[in-house]
Amino acid sequence: MTLHVRTGETASGAEHTATRSAISRDAAWLFAGYALTSGSGFVFWVAAAILIPQSALGVQASLLAIITAAAAFASIGPGSALIVLLPAGGPAAATVLSRALLVTAAAAVVAGTAAGALASAFLLTDEAPATVIALVALATVAWALFNVQTQALAGAGNARSTAWVNGAASVGKLVLLLGVAALAPQLPLLLVIATLVPATGAMILSATVLAPRAIARLRGAAAGARTWGPELARSFSRFTLQNTVATGLVLALGLSLSFLVTVLSSAEQGAVFALTYQVAVALDLVGVGVATSLARNASIDYDVSERVTRGLSGRVSLIVLGLGAVATGATPLLLSFLGEGYDAAQGAVIVAALAAASVLRPGYDLWSALMRARQRVAPVILGNVVWCAIVLAGCLTLVPPLGALGAALAILAGAVALAVFGLLASARTATRPPDAPVTPDDLPAAVQDARAAGWPHARPKERTAP
Questions:
Q1: Residue (of 250, 279, 282) closest to 351 by Cα position
Q2: Is residue 166 within 8 Å of 288, Cβ to Cβ?
Q3: What is the rounded CA–CA span in Å between residue 165 and residue 144?
Q4: DSSP output for 69-89
Q5: How far is it, in rounded angstroms, from Cα 273 to Cα 257?
Q6: Which of 104, 116, 292, 328 would disulfide-bridge 136, Cβ 3.0–4.6 Å?
Q7: What is 219-260 written as a DSSP string?
Q8: Is residue 2 within 8 Å of 465, Cβ to Cβ?
Q9: Are the C-beta atoms of 81 and 240 separated by less than 8 Å?
Q10: 442-451 pLDDT, tens per residue?
Q11: What's the angle, vertex CA 96, arms to CA 95 and CA 97, rounded to 5?
């Protein structure tokens, strides 16, 4: 008699290679989209610094910061659930996506209303509060849905389309900024309009064409017949809540730092930070692409994914180090063209601090991706709370005297804490007793069905029973 057994301990070299290829392929497409986004985004901010006076740029950048922060907080939970639950496919895939969109929109209304209240109180004080709150809430919903659409494409195995969606939105906002600045230079909130209009268009394209096609292919390829029911609903709710708490707070704080710098220091320093922070965003996306791909593949083949990622964080950090060195060296030359308000020496120090923080992050990011795939988010929440506490305390202490540089140093201090936390947590995971492996029972039922069917590349190994 033969038994079909799939365990991490017996994973073959073929499975190891296939998983590594899947992670690398998805990460490459995600990074391609992120690279195009960050590259054109950096040019966008440079153009904005040339076209918009520094104080006005600081206010508009701060407004955009709290919109994107609120949108990220609203979308990260449902988006993370899509990345883990969509790969199982089945008839439930379309329902999972529609539920994620509904939850994202509802959460974005709440978060956007709060962001609008902050904008009315600290930024757009001369405008009617109700108007500001309504417009910010609407913008937050649009950006949150854009975020979750790209995560849906990644979860549905169509990471290639994320490059086109993100790239189109990024190039579109640069073209729109230049066009509107030439035709209507006095248009208020030019930065916000140029950012949100292309993103909304890309979101509509993804929602009406790309995502439905990806879901249809996913349903056709799935061997199981998983339908939406109480068990899958609980898995979706658990993933959404856990990842909102685990990651949403970090994203919200990180993306709102330009707002904090403007409020605690000045609009001019807010503009400096908004411009230099784009370097950190670009560098962090190297690790984010790998971590997103890892979370998706580890939700199906955790043991094999964990093996192929050993030492990966070091390689990612080396790539980030090289890119960060280039960015630091180029910053003084770049800022010298933007006027006296942008101090070249200060900018170089800020970029160097942000680049150092990005070099330290990959180890923690990849470890947290593995933990989320195992649904063990309590350690991730603890690490992220430590980061938030350090960065917030650092900003409150350092931004008033140092401006944008104070925020960069606070981020660096938080990254040091995360690096130490990740090393300790990874060591603890590595020494887990062999009698406590990840079992199929640790995974949602939808993922169990996919693993049983051998998705996406593995076949059961045969073992003769004694």
A1: 279
A2: no
A3: 14
A4: HHHHHHHHHHHHHHHHHGGG-
A5: 8
A6: 116
A7: HHH-SS-----HHHHHHHHHHHHHHIIIIIHHHHHHHTHHHH
A8: yes
A9: yes
A10: 444 444 444 4
A11: 90
Percent of the chain residues topping a pLDDT of 70: 75
Lowest mean pLDDT among 114-123, 157-166, 311-320: 157-166
Chain mean position to CA 70: 13
b/e code 160-182 from CB counts within 10 Å (16+ = b): bbbbbbbbbbbbbbbebbeebbe
- Angle 129-155/159-183 helices, nearest 10 degrees? 150
- pLDDT tens digit string along 286-316? 777 676 666 555 555 555 555 666 667 788 8
Residues 83, 295 contacting (CB under 8 angstroms): yes
**Taking the domains of the chain in order of start, what are their residue ranges?**
2-459
Torsion of CA 406, 412, 415, 421, to 10 degrees: -90
Residue 463: strand pairing partners: 3
Measured CA to CA in angstroms, residue 100 lies from 149, 177, 211, 261, 378 at distances of 10, 31, 13, 33, 22
First-to-last C-alpha distance (Å) of the chain: 9
The answer for residues whose C-beta is within 8 angstroms of residue 64's C-beta and 6 or more apart is 191, 192, 195, 258
Lowest mean pLDDT among 161-165, 277-281, 319-323, 360-364: 161-165
Tokens 């994914």 locate to 305
Kindly write down the DSSP assignment for every residue of 371-413, as one continuous string: HHHTT--HHHHHHHHHHHHHHHHHHHHHHHHHTHHHHHHHHHH
Sign of CA dihedral 230, 236, 242, 245: negative
Looking at the predicted structure, is the pLDDT value of residue 120 above 90?
yes
Of 444 and 210, the one with more pLDDT:
210
